[in-house]
Amino acid sequence: MAPKLPEVESLRDVKLQVPLRVYSQDGKLISEFGEQRRAPLRYEDIPTQMIQAFLAAEDERFFTHPGVDYQGLIRAVWHIVRTGEMGPGGSTITMQVARNFFLSREKTYLRKANEILLALKIDRELSKEEVLELYLNKIFLGHRAYGVGAAAQVYYGRSVDELTLAEVATIAGLPQAPSAANPVSNPRAALHAGGMCCVAC
């Protein structure tokens, strides 16, 4: 399968879809048009608290594993052995980048194998900071918000560096159920997910 994998280098020049924004003459945002809300950020512009919250919630060994967390994969395989079904778990942030940029979301063994091989390749060719920047700008966080910059604006009307720790934790808790457990659709569920993330932090 390895020779058929896409070129990771293309991730260095990725152009993320952003909405058309209309501003007033004095520079105030009037409206946005487009299916996806996105406010791309450079890694150095993402607050450390936001990065730590996502690592605690999604991939605590991100900076030490080679793109694949073998402990998580063993847990996922054990789930399959016990239940006969593919379940959650096992995916690292790098694997999610591989899936979000190159692969489908179908739950098949072939897709998972491609995801693992591609994650290993991404980890070899990109820095951990480049991978995190891609992930935090691409991930769907509910209400047409893609990436943490858009989520901060959609849910709190502020930029990421103006959020409180509780708001950061709430956003970091969204990837598990972005449509059903966000602060607009289900504030109670969002508060619970954010609380769990705070505990993990």
Keywords, please?
mainly alpha; two-stranded antiparallel ribbon
What this model shows, in words?
With 201 residues, the chain is mostly helical. Helix content is 47%, strand content 4%. It contains 8 helices and 2 strands. The protein has a two-stranded antiparallel sheet. A hairpin with a 5-residue loop joins strand 1 and strand 2. Helix 3 packs across helix 4, helix 3 packs across helix 5 and helix 7 crosses helix 8. The radius of gyration is 17 Å and the shape is globular.
Q: From the alpha-carbon coordinates, what is the Rg to the nearest angstrom?
A: 17 Å
* Separate helix tally: 8
**Low-pLDDT windows of residues:** none
**Helix content range of the residues, please?**
40-55%
DSSP strand (E) fraction? under 5%
| Mean pLDDT, all residues | 81
The number of strands is 2
- The oligomeric status of these chains comes to single chain
Overall shape: it is globular
Topology order in helix (H) and strand (E) letters: EEHHHHHHHH
Strand order across the biggest sheet?
Answer: 1-2
How far apart, in Å, are the first and last alpha carbons?
Answer: 37 Å
Outline the biggest β-sheet.
2 strands, antiparallel
Q: What class do helices, strands and sheet pairing give?
A: mainly alpha
